[in-house]
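lol forgot to send this yesterday, sorry. struct tokens for the thing we talked abt
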């Protein structure tokens, strides 16, 4: 998609106007307002849609109507929409994306492409039938540190990739947040293996430029819930005691402390649809896993070992890539330990907003080390490109999504249908493996596209 002039701005509808929609709304009313405009909201909760509408009206003026998702086709037709941005709950993606494609509209869809393999198939069938454009927003690719690792691997200096080890730790604030609302029910998002890990599987697929074939998974819900390790035989840690003596419940999300959260999920919005933003992470009935380990085999031989936990005391990740001529190691600390602000609440997602305080033993930061056989280790620079989430990576993603490029990206960061299917496919096969106890092949998922 080449850049457009002001006169031919593309007409966008935002489908699902919750928290994530904000990033796209800001882009279309700010940096990219010259190439796109929002002309409609498609959302079942008019209170949440009104939050975004009020902000857009204050920035660019005008009025944009709100449509219920049942009236998607009517909205697209009446408002002459060119492209939708789908930022709704994961298990609604398949229906909304395929209906939009069949109504003759291009689609930008947030990860994961869909919650299950069956739902993903609905999307690949609709793309095949209509030939329309589908863009996946894999923003992690655009983080300069992740791009730097891709450059190292693509340069060939560590040789042919033979194995990858990837350890992702979500902490007791951000990780816990997946157990407070819709993410806690696996039916809504395919569990963290699909909802969260699809980001990580996409990174590996893209870093090593290889196609995942077979997955063995193990894990379950071990920590959260009424029968998890925290609730069972519970003894508070010294840290927890110290916080409660200051009147802070570290497991509780105080929605009232953040005016934006109050607008989106407070009593007025909740009265419409019963969406409670801050349920207890120690409730009964939580079906999403919090502890996961996978082995993934790739075409051509590379093997990935992967671990995700959602209750670590710090947040970040470690990646090791072993090649035939050496090894690359990326270590990222997004928050070295959880600290609480003066109002008694913690930053929810430290990858977007710098957290309070700084851990002296494990300071926030990132380090990429390359070491070839028989040589000393070298640290490689990571060029952060500006402000905003993920070292300025989100800005780069939005530019690709809304403006496209005149020249191809040497890093190949723009993601399409097949990338979404390969990434979520590892999660779907992993979920199947959790059920069967056997390794599962992506080719048997019936995704409707040749992943190779
Ligand atoms: N790439 C990233 O880093 C990233 C980060 C956060 C969220 N996300 C993705 O963005 C999406 C939204 O997440 P969120 O955190 O904003 O959730 P949210 O709960 O804040 O917002 C979801 C919205 O979808 C609406 N909705 C429910 N059913 C719908 C339907 N049938 N049609 C249209 N809208 C419907 C809800 O009412 C809500 O307003 C998810 O797919 C999530 O995976 C991606």
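and heres what i got for the seq, position by position
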């Amino acid at each position: 998609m080449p850049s457009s002039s002001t006169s031919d701005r593309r007409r966008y509808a935002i489908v699902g106007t919750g928290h994530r929609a904000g990033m796209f709304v800001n882009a279309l009313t700010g940096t990219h307002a010259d190439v796109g405009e929002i002309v409609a909201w498609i959302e079942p909760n008019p209170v949440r849609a009104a939050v975004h509408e009020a902000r857009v009206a204050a920035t660019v003026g005008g009025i944009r109507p709100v449509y219920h998702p049942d009236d998607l086709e009517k909205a697209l037709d009446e408002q002459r929409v060119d492209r939708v941005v789908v930022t709704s709950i994961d298990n609604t993606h398949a229906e909304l994306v395929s209906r939009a494609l069949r109504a003759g509209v291009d689609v930008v869809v947030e990860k994961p492409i869909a919650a299950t393999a069956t739902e993903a198939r609905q999307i690949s069938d609709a793309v095949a039938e209509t030939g329309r454009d589908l863009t996946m927003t894999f923003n992690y690719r655009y983080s300069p540190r992740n791009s730097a690792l891709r450059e190292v691997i693509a340069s060939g200096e560590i040789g042919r990739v033979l194995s990858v080890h990837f350890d992702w730790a979500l902490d007791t604030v951000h990780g816990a947040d997946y157990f407070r609302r819709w993410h806690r029910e696996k039916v809504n998002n395919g569990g963290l293996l699909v909802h969260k890990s699809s980001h990580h599987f996409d990174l590996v697929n893209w870093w090593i430029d290889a196609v995942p074939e077979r997955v063995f998974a193990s894990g379950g819900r071990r920590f959260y819930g009424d029968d998890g390790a925290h609730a069972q035989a519970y003894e508070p840690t010294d840290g927890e005691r110290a916080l409660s003596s200051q009147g802070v419940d570290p497991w509780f999300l105080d929605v009232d402390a953040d005016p934006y959260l109050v607008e989106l999920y407070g009593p007025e919005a909740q009265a419409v649809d019963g969406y409670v933003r801050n349920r207890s992470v120690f409730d009964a009935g939580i079906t999403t896993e919090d502890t996961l380990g996978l082995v993934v085999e790739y075409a051509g031989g590379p093997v990935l070992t992967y671990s995700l936990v959602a209750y670590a005391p710090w947040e970040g990740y470690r990646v090791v890539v072993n090649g035939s001529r050496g090894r690359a190691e990326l270590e990222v600390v997004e928050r070295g330990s959880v600290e609480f602000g003066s109002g008694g609440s913690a930053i929810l997602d430290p990858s977007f907003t710098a957290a309070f305080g700084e851990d002296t033993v494990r300071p926030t930061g990132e380090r990429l080390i390359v070491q070839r056989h028989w040589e000393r280790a070298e640290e490689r620079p990571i060029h952060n490109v500006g402000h905003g989430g993920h070292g300025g990576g989100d800005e780069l993603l939005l530019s690709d999504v809304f403006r496209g490029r005149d020249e191809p990206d040497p890093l190949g960061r723009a993601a399409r249908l097949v990338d979404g299917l390969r990434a979520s496919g590892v999660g779907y096969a992993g979920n199947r493996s959790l059920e069967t106890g056997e390794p599962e092949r992506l080719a048997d998922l019936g995704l409707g596209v040749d992943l190779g």
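Residues 15-20, 42-45, 48, 69, 87-90, 92, 96, 110-111, 137, 139, 195 surround nicotinamide-adenine-dinucleotide (CB under 6 Å). anyway ping me if u want another try
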